[in-house]
Amino acid sequence: MFRSARSKLGNGKAARSPLNLDSEITYLKGAGPAVAQRLRTLDLRCVRDLLFHLPTRYEDRRKHTPCARLRPDTDALVRGRIVAADVRFAGRRTLRVVIDDGTGGLLLRFFHFNPAQRESLAVGRWLQAYGSVRTGTAGPEMVHPQYRVADEAEALQPDPYLAPIYPLTTGITQQRLRGLIALALDLAAADAALATTLPGLDGPATLDALRAIHHPKSDADAEALIERSHPAQTRLIHEELLAHQLGMRLLRGRLKARPAPAIRKPADAVSALLGVLPFAPTGAQRRVLDEVAKDLSASRPMLRLVQGDVGSGKTVIAAAALLAACRDGLQAVLVAPTELLAEQHLRTLSAWFEPLGIAPLFLSNRVKKAERSRVLERLAAPEPAIAVGTHALLQDGVDYARLALTVVDEQHRFGVQQRIALREKGGKLAPHQLIMSATPIPRTLAQTLYADLDVSVIDELPPGRTPVTTVALSAAKRAEIVARIGSACAEGRQAYWVCTLIEESEELDAEAAEATAARLREELPQLQVGLVHGRMKPDQKEVQMRAFKDGTTQLLVATTVIEVGVDVPNASIMVIDNAERLGLSQLHQLRGRVGRGARESQCVLLYQPPLSDMARARLETLRATTDGFAIAQRDLELRGPGELLGRRQTGDIGMKLADPVRDAPLVPPLQPLADRLLAEHPPLARLLIARWVGDPERYAMV
Ligand code: ADP
Ligand code: MG
C-alpha cells in the first residue's frame, strides 16, 4: 500500500526508517513531487499534517430529497428524470434543464457549458444533482449544481456516508485529499501517542476522534458532526485550543528568555510626565502606568498589549514609557501606522516633553536626505533618544546603539515582518515591547488570541466628555444635514465630513473627496472648508490639520485617513457619507474623533438606501451604544472572527477546528493545564504544538 521510503531514497541514511507520521508526504502512494509541492501551499508537509487537515464542513448526500420538499437556502441531493432541456438567450446564454421526480420539478441553470454537456442532458435520461436550493420565479432552482446523468435511475445512488469537505488548493481535488488522508489514518494506527488519552482532556483518544471526523460512519455521528456537537469534535477543539495556548506560552518563554535592558526608576519618569501634563490621569491610566513601569524595570523584555477605546488616552502610557527609557540614557521608538498619526504623535510628545528638555526625533520615508542622515546618526550614537515615526524606523539601515523600548501604536494595522524587525533592532538585548490597540477585544477572546502577551486595559474615558449622539439618515436628507452644519459652524462648532472608500484606489478616493469638498464649498459659502486625503504631501496634510485644529477651517472633508488617532477636541460633528460601506469597528473609530471636548457631539451616518440587513444591523448597533467593548462583541457576532481582528485572525492564527470567538469560553480552564504540561511533560507539549500549530514564531508575525 505504501511506497517504501527505501525505493525512493536509494541507500541513503533516511531510507532505513519506516514510514511514520514524520515522513514526508511524497512517500505516500499517489503523492509525487508535484502533488507534494501543491500540498505545501496548504502547509501540508508530513503525514501528520494530513491527519490534522480537518474538514471545514460536510456535504450530506445520503438521501434524495423529494422536489416537493426542497427548502430554499439549504443544500440537497435530488434525483429525477429530465423533462426539458434548452438553451436560452435571456440576457445571458443559459442552459436550462428541468427534472421531475414525481413529487415536483426542479430547474437547473448553467451559464458555462460545452456541447458535450448539452448533449448528455437529454430529455428522458435520469439526473442526480447536489447543490444549494434557491427560489426561482417558477419554483425551486439550482445554479451550477454538481450532477451525474444515467439512463437508469438505479445507477444514481446516494452516498453511504457524509462527505467531508477539506480546504483545497489548485490542482488538488477532494478525492485526492480523501485518499491521502485515508493512507495517513492507516499509518496513524501504529502511532502510540495518538492512541493514548491526554491527561486533562476528556473524551476519546486523539486517533479515535480523528477517525470519526475524517470518516463519519453512523447516521447518529453524521447529525452530530453537522451540528458540530460530536464528542470527537469537542475533544479535538479542546486539544487544538490547548495546543495554541502551549504554542504562545512557548514563544513567550523564548522571548522572555532573552535579557532586556532593565530601565532604572521608571516610576520617577511617570511622575515627571504627570508633572508636565495639562490634565490628571484617569484611574485606569494610573493603573496601566504602574503595570508598564513595573515591566520596564525588569531585565526580561516587557511584552504588553494596551487595549483602550478610542480617546481613552493611550498616548500618555506610550509617553511615560518612552520618557523612562530616555531618562535612563537609552533609546526608545514610537511607531505609528500612518504618516498623519506619526506627525500628530510628534506634535503631542514634543509639547509634553519640551519642559523636560527633550526633543523627539522624527523619521518617515518622506523625511529629506539631510535630515534623515542626522536622525540616523543620532540613533547610531550611544546617546539617549526618543524617535517617533512610521515603519521607516524599522527599515534596514536604521541602526540603534541602545534601543531599549519599542512602542507600536494601532498594532492591528501592522504588517507581517514588522514585529519581528522591531525585536531584532535591539542587538544583544531584547527591547521591551509595548503594543497599543484601539480595537477592544472581549476578555475571553483576548486570552485565546494573546496568550503570549500581557494585556492591560484602559477601561475608563477621561472626564468631561459628553457622549456622542448618533443618528442614521438616508442620503435623501443630505441637504438638511448640510444646513445644520452651516448653522452649527456659525455658532463656533467644527465638523468632519468623511468620504468613504469607493474604489480600492487612493487616487479615486482623493478625487471623490475633492469633489465633495468643492460641492460643500458651494453649498456653504460662508464656511472655510478644509480637505485631507491620502494623496496629499505630508506638509499639505499638516497645513490642513493645523488649520482645522486652529479653527481657521470649520469643516474638514476627509477620507478615512483620519480614522486612527487624529485629535481635534473642538470638533463636535461627524458626518460619515455612505456609512453602510464601513465595518463596525471602523465606524466606531471614526466616531471617536468627536466627543473629545466638553461640548455635546453628534455623529450622522448617511447611508444610501436600500440597506442590506447586515448594514442595517451595524448602523443600529452604533446608534445604540458608544461602548467599544460592546461594539466589538457585536462586530464579532455579525461578521465572524475573521474580519475584526486585523492580522491576528482565525486564518492567520491557523485554527482548523476551533473558532476563537465561539470557543473562547473553553480556554480559561485550559490555561492551568497548559502551564502544567509545559512544566511536567515538555515532550508532550511539543508534540501537541507540532500537531496543531507548527512553528510558534507565527504568532509573532501577526
Ligand atoms: P487614544 O490614543 O487612546 O485614542 P489619546 O491618547 O489620543 O487617545 O487621547 C485622547 C485625548 O484625550 C487627547 O486630547 C488627550 O490629550 C486627552 N487625554 C488623555 N488622557 C486624559 C486625561 N486623563 N484627562 C483629560 N484628557 C485626557
Ligand atoms: Mg491613539
Automatic annotation (TrEMBL):
Family: Belongs to the helicase family. RecG subfamily.
Protein name: ATP-dependent DNA helicase RecG
Gene3D superfamilies: Nucleic acid-binding proteins, P-loop containing nucleotide triphosphate hydrolases
Pfam families given in the database record: DEAD, Helicase_C, RecG_dom3_C, RecG_wedge
GO biological-process terms attached to the record: DNA recombination; DNA repair
InterPro entries linked to this entry: ATP-dep_DNA_helicase_RecG (IPR004609), DEAD/DEAH_box_helicase_dom (IPR011545), Helicase_ATP-bd (IPR014001), Helicase_C-like (IPR001650), NA-bd_OB-fold (IPR012340), P-loop_NTPase (IPR027417), RecG/Mfd (IPR047112), RecG_dom3_C (IPR045562)
CDD domains to which the protein is assigned, alphabetical: DEXHc_RecG, RecG_wedge_OBF
Domain Helicase C-terminal positions: 491-637
Function according to Swiss-Prot or TrEMBL: Plays a critical role in recombination and DNA repair. Helps process Holliday junction intermediates to mature products by catalyzing branch migration. Has replication fork regression activity, unwinds stalled or blocked replication forks to make a HJ that can be resolved. Has a DNA unwinding activity characteristic of a DNA helicase with 3'-5' polarity.
Entry-linked SUPFAM superfamilies: Nucleic acid-binding proteins (SSF50249), P-loop containing nucleoside triphosphate hydrolases (SSF52540)
Single GO MF descriptor: DNA binding
Keywords: ATP-binding, Coiled coil, DNA damage, DNA recombination, DNA repair, DNA-binding, Helicase, Hydrolase, Isomerase, Nucleotide-binding
Catalytic reaction annotation: Couples ATP hydrolysis with the unwinding of duplex DNA by translocating in the 3'-5' direction; ATP + H2O = ADP + phosphate + H(+)
Record NCBIfam families: PRK10917.1-1, PRK10917.2-2, recG
E.C. numbers: 5.6.2.4
Residue ranges that the Swiss-Prot or TrEMBL entry lists as coiled coil: 503-530
The Helicase ATP-binding domain, residue ranges: 295-458
EC class of the enzyme, as a word: isomerase
SMART domains: DEXDc, HELICc
